[in-house]
UniProtKB/TrEMBL annotation:
This is HD domain-containing protein. InterPro entries: HD/PDEase_dom, HD_domain. Residues 26-125 form the HD domain. Transmembrane segments: none annotated.
């Protein structure tokens, strides 16, 4: 089976798993991460196939999205074997997807893993990242913003400070760092405008 056919089958597999996800972890998120991973891999002289495949599959087994993560991973591995990925490739992909999460605080060992982690983090930034943050918050009944300390930590705006604004300084590759700078600035501008409107056009806050 040629490389493009394998990629087509993987895309179809992922589309079936995530097509209707309302939390910002949908098929299009996986597609953006996969394509970004390939783009960065080519610039960083890494393996574009491994990076792209791992980008497509990086959220398989995420406990936020799967009721039984172990079964999801097992099914993925069986699928990859059926489309003629080698045992070595399957092992590498598993290592990558098990370490990309921001929540786990780990860094993948391989350059391809670092690239997928960067690609996933880039998709949490900028205009798309802002949209995804509020999609996730809405799907989990979170407030947009809360001034009361009792509710502040579970509101979506707080997520910018807990995670999104930190991502710029956590990129592994030079290529991702350059992309992250622009997306970070987009979020800073958004937050200034948000507070301006939230406070009925009072002075814009400094971030």
């Amino acid at each position: 089976m040629d490389t493009q056919t394998k990629l087509d089958k993987i895309e179809t597999y992922v589309k079936q798993k995530f097509y209707n996800d309302p939390t910002g972890h949908d098929y299009n998120h996986m597609k953006r991460v996969a394509k970004m991973a390939k783009k960065i891999a080519l610039k960083e002289q890494a393996n574009p196939f491994v990076a792209e495949v791992s980008g497509w599959l990086h959220d398989i087994g995420d406990k936020k999205l799967f009721s039984n993560p172990a079964i999801a991973i097992e099914e993925m591995n069986e699928f990859l074997s059926c489309i003629d990925l080698s045992p070595k490739q399957v092992t590498i992909i598993n290592e990558i997807i098990s370490n990309v999460s921001f929540r786990k605080g780990k860094t993948p060992h391989s350059i391809e893993g670092k690239i997928v982690q960067d690609s996933d983090r880039l998709d949490a930034m900028g205009a798309i990242g802002i949209a995804r943050a509020f999609a996730f918050g809405g799907a989990h009944d979170r407030l947009i913003h809360a001034e009361d300390k009792e509710f502040k930590d579970t509101a979506t705006i707080q997520h910018f400070y807990d995670k999104l604004l930190q991502l710029k300084d956590l990129m592994n590759t030079k290529t991702a760092q350059e992309i992250a700078n622009d997306r970070h600035e987009m979020m800073v501008v958004f937050l200034k405008q948000f507070y301006y409107e939230w406070n009925i056009n009072e002075k814009k806050s400094d971030l």
